[in-house]
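Translate structure to sequence.
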């Protein structure tokens, strides 16, 4: 059955709630294993936050690493996770889930490679976020989806959530990571100019018949590949459908009650219901009880992630652990209004903070952290600093050279029209540091001292305050062509610029406590029959730590797979460590 065909069934083997990576993975595997499967999504798109993400998938010791000359072992990965996630968390079950993840992830990814359209490849250089800790690697564990031609989806291409406009060019053209350097060298290299011309020409031809570019990369490619897999298996997808409640009989979850424009429906599930609704990023109530008040409602997650799955788990007797290291996967964000009047939230992950000629300052005009650290660590530093000196908002500042070369938030590199950003108040422009300090509300003397110290360190190539540029991850997010430090260059070319940064999230980490099979556990630690969770509806496998790129999507795919296999084959499909997690 294709999406376009009418779906009137009121009973399935498996019902999956949420069409992000975890939900689509669970649905694909369940259907491939012979289970009649229904996918329900409350928004008008499939893809969830995955579709607007970088699409990285963290899979230690994956089967493709050795072939790429990047050997890894489960023992090394375990040592790294013990060093990064193990020490920060209490007895919330995450350690047992990490053991399951390490044991099962390589096989799960191989399953997707063999049985679905999902095809992931390891990146040779993408370091773990704490590259100097035991067991860390500089590449291979991070996998990315191969580019995907959305024309393979046919009319269903319109069902796929589009990427953020700020990460596209020319009104809908996605750019792969290796091609970014060619756009930056457009006017410097004939080879780059030719490459860009070919990309733009192909995009122009696609737009003759399509609503946006068909060459999908990053998270949009992963979501597109999962959607293609669902269509190939004939899995029906109900969009714009909310789930009112779970059905239960004698303690077992047996289905759902849904609501849509067509009315209320009761749909039964013989094997189970999978909660994969994306966490609680847009739930004021759950944010109020689980996140620091200083975090507010700032989130770069997809708009449908409002805690539905977690609330359903709680209604069935599940619980949310209270001792995660963090209950969100943090990233600094900035706010702006797009030309069409819509509100934009820009996540500052790797495009600007760590680049030369940029720094972040608090309300006193001082730097408060290493700007090249991971986005999760950056927000943790904002929250810590705010306890002593105002750091919410902080300001990310740069000079004209860095703005032109790297962009700043929603302002793309080589932007020729800054006026809309300046007029809206998103981008602050000043002819000197005194004027910049006045406009962003920090002491002028402090800001000038901070910039002077930064510039002196940049000349020497050594950050005496925070060690910026001192490890492999810093070098990755910096500019390898900048010497002597890839992350630092004197701020000297006027005008100067600034944007306000707020603590935001890319998704939430607190979710339903679950077993290694993905079964939701009750307050006594026993599985609730017929109820599963994966993705951000499942409590973080990392316990709210953020060891590397893709540590949300990696577990989402793996535990979506494990939940589906458990429903299809029961305990015989699962190892003892999964049953006891």
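Result:
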């Amino acid at each position: 059955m294709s999406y376009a065909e009418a779906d009137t069934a009121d009973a399935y083997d498996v019902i999956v709630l949420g069409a992000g990576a975890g939900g689509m993975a669970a649905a694909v595997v369940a259907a491939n294993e012979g289970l009649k499967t229904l996918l329900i999504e409350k928004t008008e798109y499939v893809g969830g936050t995955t579709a607007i993400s970088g699409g990285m998938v963290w899979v230690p010791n994956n089967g493709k690493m050795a072939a790429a000359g990047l050997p890894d072992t489960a023992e090394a990965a375990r040592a790294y996770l013990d060093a990064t996630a193990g020490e920060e968390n209490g007895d919330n079950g995450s350690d047992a889930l990490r053991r399951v993840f390490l044991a099962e992830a390589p096989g799960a990814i191989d399953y997707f490679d063999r049985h679905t359209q999902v095809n992931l490849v390891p990146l040779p250089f993408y370091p773990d976020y704490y590259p100097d800790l035991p067991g860390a690697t500089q590449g291979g564990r991070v996998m990315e989806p191969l580019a995907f031609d959305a024309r393979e989806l046919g009319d269903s291409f319109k069902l796929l959530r589009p990427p953020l406009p700020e990460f596209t060019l020319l009104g809908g053209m996605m750019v792969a990571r290796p091609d970014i350097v060619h756009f930056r060298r457009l006017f410097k290299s004939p080879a780059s100019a030719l490459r860009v011309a070919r990309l733009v020409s192909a995009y122009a031809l696609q737009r003759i018949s399509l609503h946006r570019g068909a060459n999908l990369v990053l998270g949009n490619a992963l979501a597109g590949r999962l959607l293609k897999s669902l269509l190939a298996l004939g899995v029906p997808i109900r969009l714009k459908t909310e789930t009112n409640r779970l059905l239960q009989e004698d303690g077992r979850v047996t289905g759902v009650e849904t609501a849509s424009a067509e009315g209320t429906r009761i749909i039964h599930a013989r094997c189970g219901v999978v909660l994969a609704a994306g966490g609680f990023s847009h739930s004021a109530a759950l944010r109020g009880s689980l996140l620091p008040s200083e975090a507010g409602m700032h989130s770069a997650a997809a708009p449908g992630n409002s805690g539905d799955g977690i609330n359903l788990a709680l209604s069935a007797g599940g619980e949310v652990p209270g001792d995660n290291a963090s209950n969100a996967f943090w990233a600094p964000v900035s706010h702006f209004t797009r030309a069409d009047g819509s509100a934009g939230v820009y996540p500052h992950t790797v495009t600007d903070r760590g680049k030369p000629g940029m720094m972040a300052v608090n309300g006193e005009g001082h730097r408060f952290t290493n700007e090249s650290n991971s986005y999760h660590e950056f927000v943790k530093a904002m929250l810590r600093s705010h306890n002593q000196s105002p750091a919410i908002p902080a300001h990310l500042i740069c000079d004209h050279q860095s703005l032109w070369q790297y962009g700043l938030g929603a302002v793309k590199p080589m932007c020729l029209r800054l006026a809309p950003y300046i007029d809206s108040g998103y981008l602050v422009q000043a002819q000197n540091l005194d004027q910049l300090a006045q406009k962003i509300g920090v002491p002028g003397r402090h800001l000038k001292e901070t910039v002077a110290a930064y510039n002196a360190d940049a000349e020497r190539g050594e950050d005496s305050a925070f060690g910026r540029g001192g490890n492999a991850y810093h070098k990755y997010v910096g500019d390898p062509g900048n010497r002597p430090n890839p992350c630092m260059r004197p701020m000297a070319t006027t005008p100067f610029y600034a944007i306000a940064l707020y603590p935001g999230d890319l998704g939430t980490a607190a979710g339903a406590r679950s077993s290694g099979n993905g079964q939701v556990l009750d307050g006594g630690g026993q599985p609730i029959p017929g109820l599963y969770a994966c993705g951000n509806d499942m409590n973080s496998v990392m316990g709210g730590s953020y060891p590397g790129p893709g540590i949300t999507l990696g577990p989402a795919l793996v535990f979506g797979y494990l939940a589906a296999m458990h429903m299809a084959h029961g305990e015989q499909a699962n190892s003892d460590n999964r049953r006891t997690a």
